[in-house]
Every structure is written in structure tokens, then in C-alpha cells.
Amino acid sequence: MPDQEDLLSDAEREALATVTAPRAAPQKVLIVDDNQVAREALAGYLKSKKVGCLTAQNAKRALACLKGEQNIGLLITDLRMGPFDGLELIRQIRESDKAALPIIIVSGDADVPDAIAAMHLSVVDFLLKPIDLDKLMALVRKELGIS
Predict the structure, then answer these.
(1) Which stretches within the chain are classed as H helix?
(2) CA 115 to CA 2: how far, in whole Å?
(3) Which domains are delineated in the chain?
(4) Can you list the pairs that 114-120 forms with residues at least 24 positions away whose Cβ atoms lie under 8 Å?
């Protein structure tokens, strides 16, 4: 009896896969900033560009959100926050099951040692406030695979 896989051509298999494969939920961005105005402004901007967002006011809430949400594809975090800062948040993420999560740091108060520490934690980029929105959007599109 012939092998069943020989019944369909590669093109037919691809067409069938696109019809029957469930669509993945769109990836969202988690924005972490203790400044409510900055957090909501960034979320509003990304939502206006059709990017789904979640927000957290501190690192502790961000970690809880990452545990509860499965479709977060990118984290954008401020550097200076309490009770622990953005670098500590990134360290904890890198030691978790979300270690591969792409992360962008935005900060209005950073120095060279902060930037170096961030790069050692494998962040995508380190943007200074005020944020270059075109650059940020290009990074978001790239990391989420949005064309």
C-alpha cells in the first residue's frame, strides 16, 4: 500500500495547514512604569498603532502579569522604579521560564553603568526618554513579527 503522505503534494499540504491550523493569539506588549502618565501615554500610542498592550505599575505586578498571561511577546520597562528597579526585574525574568522574552528599557535617568548592565542582561535596546517613537515602533514591530 502506498505511503499516505504521497497522496498530497507539498503545495496541497501547505494549503491545508493554513486552513486547518488554529490562529495564534496576537502577541501583546507589557509596559512597566511607575509613572502612570508615561505608562498610559505609551500604551495609548501603541494601541493607536494596533498593538495590544498590558500595563503594570511596578516590577512585582509585572512578574505577576507574566505568570498569568501567555501571549506577552515583548516587555518595555522603565529603569527607575520601586520597590525594585527595572534591572532587577530583568534579572528575575532572565532566571525564569520567560528568560527568552525580548525586553526594551526606556529611561529618563540612566548612566553608562546602567546601560552596560542592561546589555549584559540581553535587552533588545535601551532608549532614553523622551522616546523616539519611530524607533520604538520599529523595534516593537520587529520583536512581535508585525509587518
Answers:
(1) 10-20, 36-48, 59-68, 86-94, 112-120, 133-144
(2) 61
(3) 25-144 (3.40.50.2300)
(4) 114/79, 114/87, 117/87, 118/79, 118/87, 118/90
> pLDDT tens for residues 70-125?
899 999 999 888 778 889 999 999 999 999 999 999 988 777 888 888 888 999 99
Encode pLDDT of 12-56 as tens digits: 777 666 665 555 667 999 999 999 999 999 999 999 999 999 999
Q: Quick check: 28 and 76 in contact, CB under 8 A?
A: no
C-beta of residue 38 within 8 angstroms of C-beta of residue 32: no
